[in-house]
Amino acid sequence: MRRILLPILVIGILLLSACGAPTTAPPSEASPTPPPTEQPAPPPTPPEEKELPSYAITWDEAKYHIGERTTVCGSVINTKWASGSKGKPTFLNIGKPYPDPDRFTVVIWIDYRANFPSPPEVYYKDKTICVTGLIIEYKGVPEIEVKDPSQIQFGLAAGSGEGYSLGHTDSTPQMEQALVVQVIDGDTAQLADGRRVRYLGIDAPELGEPYANEATAKNKQLVEGKIIELQQGKRDQDEYGRLLRYVYVDGVFVNAELVAQGYATAYIFDPDERYSQVLVQLEQYAKMRKQGLWGIN
C-alpha cells in the first residue's frame, strides 16, 4: 500500500508545484524605437493690419453704410472696362472678384473716363486704394461712382511710393488732429493753438492775384471751423515758421482737391516728396479740363 501511495503523493506534489508556479512569458524581441515625428512649422504670423484713419472704413463694411458719404479702403482684385455696355463703365472690384456678391465696386462711367490719364482698369489693378464718395447699392452690391482721380487715393499697403495716403507707416508720422479757426488764403490756415499750416506741395494765388478770392473761398468751404488731420512731409516748417503739411478733412485730401479743381497749382519743394508726382499729375488734369484758374482767359 505504501508503495502505491508514494508515487501518487510525488505526482500530486509535482502537479501542485506546476499549477502554483508563476508563468513567465518568453522575452519578446525588442521593438525598434520609432523615429521622432517631424513637428509641422507654426503658421506664419499674419502681417499687422494697417491702421485706417478715423474717417475711413474697410471694403467689407461698406454694405452697412449705404447712403453715406465716406472713404472705403481695400485691394483691387479684378477690373473691367465694359466698353460694349450702356454707359461704357469701368469697374474696379475691391475685396472680392466679380461676380462675388460680397464685393465692393468702384464705377467710372465713360463721361468721366477721360479725366484719368491712364486706363483705370490697368492703373489701379492689384493696388490697395481708398475711395471717397457716396455709397449706393446696385443689385445688392455696394459701390461708389467716381468722377475724378482725386476721389481715389492709394493705400499704404500698395507700396507704390506714390499716390494719396490715408494711413501710417513706420517712416510716416501719424496724423495729428487740429481745429481750423481761420482760413488765411487758398493754401494756408490758422489753427486753434495759434500755429499756422501751409499746405505742402501746392501754391494758391496770393490775395490780390487772379482767382485768389475763389481759392480762399474754396479753402474755407473745405476746412474752416472743422477738425482736420495733418500729415508731415520731409520738412516740418517753412522759413516763416509755418507747418508744412498734407491736410485731410472728411475723407478729402485737401491739397489734392485744390489742385484737381484748379484752385491751386502744384508747387514742389522736393521732387522726392511723397505726393509730388501725384500733385503734378492732378495739375495736368485741371489744365486739360480748364478747371478754375486754368479757365481764365
The H-and-E topology, N to C, reads as HEEEEHHEEEEEEEHEEEHEH
Quaternary organisation of the protein chains: single chain
- Number of DSSP strands? 15
Poorly predicted sequence stretches spanning 5 or more consecutive residues: 21-31, 44-50, 156-172
Mean pLDDT: 80
**Major sheet description:** 5 strands, mixed, barrel
Structural class: alpha+beta
Describe the global form.
Answer: globular
CATH class annotation of the largest domain: Mainly Beta
* Beta-strand content estimate: 25-35%
Number of folding domains?
2
What does this structure look like?
- The chain is of the alpha+beta class and 297 residues long.
- The chain folds into two domains: 56-158, Beta Barrel (OB fold (Dihydrolipoamide Acetyltransferase, E2P)), CATH 2.40.50.140; 176-295, OB fold (Dihydrolipoamide Acetyltransferase, E2P) (Beta Barrel), CATH 2.40.50.90.
- 20% of the residues lie in helices and 29% in strands.
- The protein is built from six helices and 15 strands.
- It has helices spanning 2-20, 110-113, 120-123, 212-223, 254-260, 276-289; strands spanning 56-58, 69-81, 90-94, 104-108, 128-138, 141-145, 152-154, 176-185, 188-191, 196-199, 202-203, 227-237, 243-249, 252-253, 265-266.
- 34% of the residues are buried.
